[in-house]
Here is the input.
Amino acid sequence: MTRPSSTNVFDYTQDRFACDGVPLGDVAAAVGTPCYVYGARVVRERYRALDEAFGAVPHALHYALKANSTMGVVRLVRSLGAQVDANSGGEIELALRAGYAPSQVVFTGVGKTPAELEQAVRLGVRTINAESPGELARIDEIARARGARARVALRVNPDIDARSHPHISTGLRRNKFGVALESAFDVCLDAARRPGLHLVGLHAHIGSQITTLEPLAGAAATLAALARRLAGAGVQVEHLDLGGGLGVSYDGGPVPDVAAYVSALVEATRDAGCLLILEPGRWLVAPAGVLLATVVDVKVHPGGRRFVVLDAGMTDLLRPALYSAFHRIVPLQRDGRPDVACDVVGPVCESSDTFGVDRQLPDPAPGDRVAVLDTGAYGAVMASNYNRRVTPPEVLVDGGRWEIIRRRQTLDDMLACES
Ligand SMILES: Cc1ncc(COP(=O)(O)O)c(C=O)c1O
Here is the structure.
């Protein structure tokens, strides 16, 4: 276990919180708040660390678009050499528009519609990660009707506890994902016999924000054992897709080191002789993002709590309301005020619209600005228009310069779909 490998890209310069040397107070003043800011250097350094941890072991990294699919971020990830994991027809289309070829896309998803399956087969994506025998039969039918053979992998549910938050654990029998391990062998044999299918891989993704390596290594070993058993029956798969899931440190505490993670996976799958695919999302981009916000009110209930109300809320960053997720919150300007205990909340009409309880911040006043840290993954992508709030802009800082990669939504944008 080590401290997070990231980088001091976000840090104070002369008491001003900055990203790669760019004071974030200046960005907030220019763009307004709430606003997401991403540091390209963080993504670059983390991608390189993950890629290099494999050494000479054959592998492919398919960035999980669901974590952050803003076009500017996807283009950045593509420039580093990553391929992609798409979870919907919309994400496939986004990948193509970002410059990806279909052969660089794996398509995962628990409820792919007929239209999405048609799209994936017609395009010829690298692999469709199939969720069930029924879905395999549907893909087979679509492919045969087109005179094609679709590349598929079977998503296996290994019944392994990821020991993460229940809402983001996906590898237990009680979760809706994949095919139960005890049926997987027979389902693979059936898939291998179908003329419209080419069974090229096995897939498992047991959850997200996983901070112990045993479950991840256990799932990898399970797939490797299944691949060996299939090879014994004459069905050789090309790859094992081990999903994403590696956690990050939201509270600054220790998390598994990326090199230890990769070596655990490589070790667990060594004798299967397959290419390894990973679908990292959170680990690559979470520490690359911060959400900037402005204090709009401070109120103290008599003998009770001090509420610091921000202009950012659960519509901008849902994770605290959805998963009770913890994010550090820091001031953009340090000026020597003493810390006070406060609850940092948003403006939305829900008590769950709370970013932090009992936090220490330098005696906040209206107009002060703060950054909510490690919000590069599952932040902007989950933004909503609840309370008729517009979605926030996103800024990318690269090489000491910044640009808006997504502008703030307007009320007209929001209403454009309505009659
Ligand atoms: C199938 C699949 N692959 C990859 C990921 C990315 O996971 P993470 O962001 O934890 O790396 C997810 C997210 O839960 C997923 O569902």
Observations:
- Residues 1-6 have pLDDT under 50 and may be disordered.
- The longest helix spans residues 213-232.
- Residues 125 and 263 are 28 Å apart (CA to CA).
- The longest strand covers residues 289-300.
